[in-house]
Amino acid sequence: KLFFTDYGNAAKVERCDMDGMNRTWIVDSKIEQPTALALDLINKYVYWVDIYLDSVEVVDYQGRRRHTIIKGRQIRHLCGLAVFENYLYTVNSDNLSILQINRYNGTDVQSLARLDNAKEIRVYQKRTQTAVRSHACEVDPYGMPGGCSHICLLSSNYKARTCRCRTGFILGSDGRSCK
Q1: Superfamily in which the 134-178 domain is placed by CATH
Q2: Homologous superfamily, domain 2-123
Q3: Where are the LDL-receptor class B repeats (predicted)?
Q4: Rounded distance, CA 117 to CA 31, Å?
Q5: CA-wise closest residue to 114 among 98, 99, 101, 100
Q6: Which whole-number Å values give the CA distances from 87 to 22, 90, 108, 161, in the listed order?
Q7: DSSP code of 132?
Q8: Could you tell me which of 112, 123, 97 has the C-alpha nearest to residue 39?
């Protein structure tokens, strides 16, 4: 799945398959400007920062069990969001500090460091990477991902795929080759 935020005409947090199909709103009320988003892949939670409401909130992948982690002035101007173990990590764009927020007890907020021009944050740790099983976009014997001549996108599950073409090409009737 692909998770993303949108604060155009109607602010929302959404999800879809990697090929763009099955687009679903998971949060579409009491939300104004969702900017940063992070996933808890193990427990299947979506965390986001709303910079208009000065809040960090969470829902499960279906948009249920929503609650506010932290709200208020101390978290104004946040950009970027990452989750690792018991904490959320974010950047305060006002003073360029990295904040650590306990995701179970939002009152536990610590400033860890300052970085010049930081706008995003990521946590790279082996335990946060899910094991990869064989999938529909694996390279075939001819070197083509999923048998697609240009682009292979996973679909509704790891066994299904959709072929797409680069700009200027159209997908052939076989659903795999681009012309």
Answers
A1: Laminin (2.10.25.10)
A2: TolB, C-terminal domain (2.120.10.30)
A3: 1-43, 44-87
A4: 27
A5: 98
A6: 31, 10, 9, 34
A7: P
A8: 123
Given a cut of 70, the residues of the chain with pLDDT beneath it are: 127-132
Look over the chain and give the mean of its residue pLDDT values, rounded to a whole number: 89
CA distance 174 to 79: 44
Tell me the backbone φ, ψ of residue 75, rounded to 5 degrees: -120, 25
- Asked if residues 22 and 16 have their Cβ atoms less than 8 Å apart, the reply is yes
pLDDT of residue 129: 64
Is there a contact between 103 and 88 (Cβ–Cβ < 8 Å)? yes
With 0-12 / 13-18 / 19 or more C-beta atoms within 10 angstroms meaning exposed / middle / buried, residue 47 is: buried
Sorted by where each begins, the domain ranges of the chain are 2-123, 134-178
Q: Compute the distance between CA of residue 72 and CA of residue 56 in angstroms, rounded to an integer.
A: 9
For residue 157, the tally of other CB atoms under 10 A from its CB is 11
The Cα-based distances of 165 to 16, 118, 141, 149, 150 in angstroms read 19, 35, 20, 8, 5
Other C-beta atoms lying within 10 Å of the C-beta of residue 119:
11
Distance CA 110, CA 108 (A): 7
Inter-residue contact 36 to 77 (CB < 8 Å): no
